[in-house]
Write a structure and sequence with these properties.
18 helices; seven-stranded parallel β-barrel; single chain; Sulfite Reductase Hemoprotein, domain 1; TIM Barrel; 3 domains; alpha/beta
């Protein structure tokens, strides 16, 4: 396998790409014209370990104060590179190129203004559009060459140009082509100080787009550093899970040179979680295959033959314990989401204990009690018909104890994977095709020791990426009883992020920035409080209209700020109420949901 690294780019003395460490960055959410607040947040981010700090510069006044803020930071001996975040205003980007270490531009709105008008582009018209864009970019390129300023081509799923939408639709392929258009123009102009990013609020779209981009850049010999992030991830556990799924999955594959975890919280709180992700998956010691497609294939083309009787909802969650008593304690808690199976270790199993459990006044279905045993134990183990079997195949020898497996008849069997290499797993699946029973495959992972966030990242990446690739049918958690409630909640959150199993409301919420003119953290908490029980609905809470309506395009409803500090309420992509005061907007949102017949009481 040959080594494949992106090109190195120097951003204010902090190199990105190549063999450089994966860098962590964030963005201030203060008003850029508020010098004191922005300075304070920049310093807090730098001291938290941020490698780059991005600041919103929507207009010339903000750009001028950006320079003022930079000068003060340098006077205070803070030399972390600063990034100007520009939308819609080429003249602002050109101005910032004279002093910012990097300028972020968006291909969807740098040289284009979105219109609802349906326009068809033939090849001639399309090429003319590309030349118009190149003409618009040349002044920025010229100035960046003079000052050594880097550029990030930051493509957002929610703000693709009309030209791209017309030809490719609102797709991952469209995101890639929007980015490649700009990359080709910059390359033709001899400009190499580039970083690219493809972001979406849906982690699955973000993963697909970045895999396709990496493959396309390889093909065209334009392998520039990649910045990873899931936009509008939200807050708390769900926001961290979405970010870990998108960013961690790609880092594990070797894609990504810098990351930002976008949470609807103080940006300083993004840094520790991002650093843990880099610690777990940011090592660049492994090589990437020459084509991205080689790293995303399932481990086997064999279709899973998971017994439908066992699978109430794809995929499954199983909790492994050492005692029936642990299961009873968890099952009695009405506020805890319940796993699909309760696994009891064979060496701790006590038949009399199980009989005692049966006499309790509790709804504990027998078919959800499963024994977790080693495949070697089948030689002497009596198979109770009422129990399903979780059979551990970890560390199995070449023969896979096939003779023992052939003794299984008419039983519900789930094989448990842990540290099984892809080649062994492929051989195992091939041999299992001749067995006289149906089976499923789950991945086992221990619960956290002390660091829950670190465990959450690992569980999300290992479980989530494997489920997306259809490598197995669910997962099994082995953890102390004290952590069960939190662990099961996290497991359902991972399934929600993969969109393979929906168990709660999904919130798409931006992290806020200098363009947001209301308290979005409070707004999100209020929306969650009012609508968090509406299982299956997707609700967007967005700070402004730059990417908001586009990024929440697949949401059922939206709460979006505008430039006046007021709120617009959306149903799908249509505005249903305009310029509402934030403290009244929740009522409008709830009433629209009720009028659609999609509301139910808690």
């Amino acid at each position: 396998m040959s080594f494949t690294f992106s090109r190195e780019v120097d951003i204010g003395g902090v190199v990105i790409g190549g063999c450089s460490p994966v860098r962590v960055q964030s963005m201030t959410n203060t008003a850029t014209l508020d010098t004191a607040a922005t300075l304070k947040q920049c310093i807090a981010l730098i001291e938290a370990g941020c490698d780059y700090v991005r600041i919103a510069t929507p207009g010339m006044r903000e750009a001028e104060n950006f320079l003022n803020i930079k000068n003060i930071l340098r006077q205070k001996k803070y030399h972390t590179p600063l990034i100007a975040d520009v939308h819609y205003r080429p003249e602002v980007a050109e101005f910032c190129a004279g002093f910012a270490e990097k300028v972020r531009i968006n291909p969807g709105n740098y040289a284009d203004k979105f219109s609802n008008a349906k326009v068809t582009y033939d090849e001639k018209a399309y090429n003319e559009e590309l030349e118009r864009i190149a003409h618009r970019l040349r002044p920025l390129i010229k100035k960046c060459k003079v000052y050594g300023t880097a550029i990030r081509i930051g493509t957002n799923h929610g703000s693709l140009s009309q030209r791209i939408l017309n030809r490719y639709g609102d797709t991952a392929k469209g995101m890639v082509e929007a980015t490649m258009e700009f990359l080709r123009i910059f390359s033709h102009e001899g400009f190499k100080q580039l970083v690219v990013s493809l972001k979406a609020s849906n982690p699955l779209v973000m993963i697909e787009a970045n895999r396709l981009l990496w493959e396309q850049m390889l093909k065209e010999d334009l392998l520039f550093p990649v910045h990873l992030g899931v936009t509008e991830a939200g807050m708390g556990e769900d926001g961290r899970i979405k970010s870990a799924l998108g960013i961690g999955t790609l880092l594990k594959e070797g894609i990504g040179d810098t990351i930002r975890v976008s949470l609807t919280e103080s940006p300083v709180q993004e840094i520790p979680f991002a650093k843990k992700m880099v610690e777990l998956y940011g090592a660049k010691t492994l090589a990437l295959p020459q084509a991205a497609g080689e790293i995303i294939k399932p481990l086997s083309e064999v279709t899973h033959n998971f017994c439908k009787k066992l699978r109430p909802n794809y995929p499954v969650i199983a909790l492994k314990t050492n005692s029936i008593k642990d299961i009873l304690a968890l099952h009695k808690d009405k506020n805890v989401p319940k796993p699909d199976f309760y696994g009891v270790c064979y060496k701790h199993f006590n038949e009399s204990e199980f009989s005692d459990a049966e006499t309790l006044d509790i709804d504990l279905p027998k078919e959800k009690i499963s024994l977790v045993i080693d495949v070697k134990a089948l030689a002497t183990f009596h198979l109770p018909e009422r129990l399903s079997l979780f059979i551990n195949i970890t560390g199995i020898e070449k023969g896979f104890h096939l003779e023992n497996l052939k003794k299984i008849k008419n039983n519900n069997v789930i094989f448990v994977l842990r540290d099984v290499s892809p080649d062994k797993l492929a051989v195992f699946r091939q041999k299992m095709s001749a067995m006289p029973f149906t089976y499923g495959m789950v991945l086992e992972l221990n619960g956290p020791d002390n660091d829950f966030d670190k465990w959450l990242i690992q569980a999300t990446v290992e479980f989530g990426s494997g489920l997306i690739a259809q490598q197995f049918d669910g997962f099994l958690i082995h953890a102390p009883a004290t952590a069960q409630k939190q662990l099961i909640s996290a497991c359902f959150g991972i399934l929600q992020a993969t969109r393979l199993r929906i168990s709660k409301t999904e919130f798409i919420a931006c992290p806020s920035c200098g363009r947001t003119v209301f308290d979005i953290q409070k707004a999100l908490k209020d929306v969650i409080q009012a609508t968090g029980h509406l299982k299956g609905l997707k609700i967007g809470v967005m700070g402004c209209i730059v990417n908001g309506p586009g990024e929440m395009a697949d949401a059922d409803y939206g709460y979006v700020g505008n430039a006046k500090g007021l709120v617009n309420i959306y149903r799908g992509r249509q505005v249903r109420a305009k310029n509402i005061k934030p403290d009244e907007a929740i009522s409008y949102l709830v009433n629209i949901i009720k009028s659609d017949g999609r509301w139910f009481e808690r």
